[in-house]
Amino acid sequence: MSSSGNTGGGNSGKGYNVTSSGNNSQGNHYCHRDYSSSSSKPANSNSYHYSNNNGSYYYSNPNGSTYYNNGQGGSKYTGPSGK
User: Fold this and answer.
1) Which strands, in side-by-side order, build the sheet including 3-7?
2) What average pLDDT does this structure show over 1-22?
3) Which of 32, 52, 77, 80 could share a disulfide with 48, CB 3.0–4.6 Å?
4) Please, what's the b/e burial string for 6-19 (b: 16 or more CB within 10 A of its CB; e: otherwise)?
5) Tally of CB atoms within 10 A around 35
6) What is the pTM for the complete model shown?
């Protein structure tokens, strides 16, 4: 899977740094966020999201929770405890 995009970036005022983002060869967008410099030190200091060209998207959040939306009205949330 090849990708193109930028690395680095700011957003430090939001408690994270964007370490990479762009679009892969399938046209899907991704963004990786590093929260390790955040004063709150979340459980998952490296989180990310991606948006697919079919309308679906996925978030892995700094608290360990995840969220998936299939772009057709269906979604699934998993809390930090895995439930």
Assistant:
1) 3-7, 17-24, 29-34, 46-51, 57-60, 66-69, 75-78
2) 58
3) 32
4) eeeeeeeeeebbbe
5) 20
6) 0.64
pLDDT of residue 51: 93
**Single-letter amino acid code for the residue at 11:** N
Residue type at position 62:
P
CA 81 to chain CA mean position, Å: 18
Distances (CA, A) of 74 to 33, 57, 59, 65, 83: 25, 11, 15, 17, 17
Q: What's the confidence (pLDDT) of residue 70?
A: 97
Distance CA 50, CA 71 (A): 12
